[in-house]
Amino acid sequence: MIRLRDIEKSFSGNPVLRKISLDVRPGAVTALIGPSGSGKSTLLRCLNLLETSDAGQLEFDDVTLRFVKGQALDKAKVLAVRRMTGMVFQNFQLFPHRTAVANVMEGLIVVQKWPTDKARARALALLEKVGLADKAEAWPLTLSGGQQQRVAIARALAASPKLLLCDEPTSALDPELAAEVVDVLAALAREGTTMLIATHDLRLANRMAQHVAFLQDGVVVEEGTPADVFGAPKDGRTIRFVRTLG
Ligand code: ADP
Ligand code: MG
């Protein structure tokens, strides 16, 4: 189980996350929805410790981190949490000067210190899984956006993370390319991959998630099953958001 409790984060005195608590259930997909600027990306970055929360607590399996502003975190715990998470970004963020397979291998070689042969075999298997076995030696910029994002998903999975974080994984893509990315994510979900997906695509959230949390102004305003949040929203802010985008 992954639990966030009372997470707070400000940037130059502006609160962006205000006492956020959220559980991410193992083997399920949790969708984090909400308008632009509501704090979705910041929450994902606080979860994988790309950002350090100012206050609150993160429990990730047997690792517990308590955040106190100005206080350093236990480095071993930070490393443990980073190793348990993989991240997929809106704009793919592949290394442009590395082939698809080299992108997927990179973390295994640099961080996990795997031998090249073993890393390459794992990377090729992951590219096959995302339907890109034939693009292993392709340069990222020769690939479509959908293909680049599938390489990025393979890369995020390379070190077998316990949690896959996806930050607007389809937002930079035309609908047909978004669909091929959603198909890959849906297949991972069927295999029981634990995912937290930040998205303003309500159809994506509705199709994939077992649990939906609606974030606005750094607060979880409402959460529940997709049927609850989309079908019978209770909070006025959720109702307006679902109506506007639905
Ligand atoms: P979302 O992903 O929901 O669009 P973000 O988490 O990106 O929201 O941003 C929430 C708020 O935090 C925005 O007002 C944004 O400008 C601000 N913010 C995010 N990251 C930073 C940063 N590194 N420095 C200053 N402000 C930031
Ligand atoms: Mg964002």
UniProtKB/TrEMBL annotation:
Q: What is this protein called?
A: ATP-binding protein
Pfam families assigned to the protein according to its UniProt record, in alphabetical order = ABC_tran
- What residues does the ABC transporter domain cover? 2-242
GO MF, one example: ATP binding
PANTHER family linked to this entry = AMINO ACID IMPORT ATP-BINDING PROTEIN, L-CYSTINE IMPORT ATP-BINDING PROTEIN TCYN
Cellular location(s): Cell membrane
Report keywords, A-Z.
Answer: ATP-binding, Cell membrane, Membrane, Nucleotide-binding, Transport
Membrane association type? Peripheral membrane protein
Concerning its family, UniProt says: Belongs to the ABC transporter superfamily.
Q: Would the keyword Transmembrane helix be found if you checked this record's keyword annotation? A: no
InterPro entries attached here? AAA+_ATPase, ABC_ATPase_HisP-typ, ABC_transporter-like_ATP-bd, ABC_transporter-like_CS, MetN_ABC_transporter-like, P-loop_NTPase
Cellular component GO terms, alphabetically? plasma membrane
Principal place where this protein is found? membrane
